[in-house]
Design brief:
With 532 residues, this protein is an alpha+beta fold. It has helices at residues 7-35, 37-82, 85-92, 96-111, 160-166, 219-228, 265-268, 270-278, 321-334, 338-372, 382-399, 413-420, 422-439, 463-485, 505-526; strands at residues 121-127, 133-139, 145-147, 172-175, 179-180, 182-183, 186-187, 193-202, 208-217, 234-238, 244-246, 283-286, 289-296, 306-307, 313-320, 403-410, 445-448, 453-459, 491-497. The longest helix has 46 residues, at 37-82.
Amino acid sequence: MTMSGNPENRTRVQRIEEVRMGLILAFCLCFLFFIVEFFIYQILHGRIHHDLDQNRTQEVSAMGERIHDIFLRIEVYLVHASNLYSVRQLLKGEDPAMRSAVERFFLKIVEAKVSHFAPTFGQVRLLNLNGMEILRVDLDPDNRARVRPRGQLQDKADRYYVRESMALSENQIYMSPMDLNVEHGRVELPHKPMIRFAIPVFESHGKRVGLLVFNYLAQQILRDLSVFVHKEDQWILLNEDGYYLYGPNPDKNFGFMFPEKKAGFFSDYPDFWELLSTSRGQKFDRPEGIYYRKTINPFGVDAMMTVSNNHFWTFLMFVPKKNIHRQDILLVQGLLMAGVIIVPILFLLGWFLGKARVKNKWYLASLEASATRDGLTGLLNHRAAMDQLEYQMNVAKRYGHSLSLAYIDLDNLKTINDTLGHRKGDQMILLAAESIIKSIRNTDIAARIGGDEFIVILPGLVREGTREVISRIEDSYARGSQSVFQRELTLSWGVSLWEGISDTMESFINRADKEMYKMKKEKKSSGNIHLP
């Protein structure tokens, strides 16, 4: 039968097929049940228990993937924030413009909790090398992100996570254990499960200037995990030492935070905890029921950075024996209904999971773009540009291709910012970025690597071809600036050619940089740089 393009026809055909399949399956099951009742019972009994194992195992794995996904997003936030120019500048010295930019960025991070797929942060801090907060954004009890006044900033130098994080090198991040938030030496009430992530901030030449600390509200993990678990089942989350992070008795949760408790799963079930510690099994059939175990390594092997002290958790899903026996009873009652119920459930489950997976994919793609693109111009940022330059140098080395680099600096940006305001300065930067994009080839790579500094990587071109490209950029920039500033603006530039396998990235860039500064110096000495 050919399905009609009419939506009503498609719906009608689909309903007919669903009803027909449901009726056929129900009829077959009823027929088989009444003919060979015991035989059917034995087969479906084994299948139900097999499906029980499989479904619980998949659910436990889905929980691990959910946590892993959240932590990778946290890593993206950390890496992106630590590479922000405004963050580095604020750590080097007080600057109202840099402080304002960092405050806006931190507020956006904390306010991202409104998205179902975004990590929820309770605090975002920027600390100097002495462990003193120089900027802090909190999530208040009314669920609003607020910048704390400077008088409320605290010295965190004595906190364990600050001491350990300060010793990290580049490409390392710190993850604390999941514990309860402590304010002024006391556990905060109501309890706030917290994981602290930190990353040192370095200047481009490798000098350490400060520390970023994100306080992740781990209640999000506990809430999300509970959604996956059936109401009749129980679930337990343990840290690596066997303490409850979440368990059937709330009074025992986070026992390591309270000296008077010091109780955990290891003391409640010492023999079982020893078995869990020595066995790699995922399923444990005990007299009281079945336990399904998942060891959760939050970052896994996909992390971009090295996690200095990556903690792991043990997740246990407990299915009591009475629930398993109930399945046997329901089997007898539901043999005739199985085909009618299971098919639509699987259909709906697949539809919802597929939708969630697609949303997750696009969300991660968006985060990846934000980590590699300049927020104002949309061009590649400094880190991404260096990665691209390294790649193009390797291509040129392998195939013997030509490669050139243009270093471009805008004339008078500081003067325009000081006299006309930063909005005009931003217009000037955007105009330059648009001129570059319009003037280069599809194979060329443009990036903004500083406030008014751009580079263009030009594979396959030598000096003459590179100068032709820059000439087009200058012409486009001059024409565009005429309408915005009523005067033609200029830019200074320098060009360097890749000199072969002995050439390094640093020397390659420095030659273009020196040539650019030489041009700028000549312009200044000749009086060719004027304020618009």
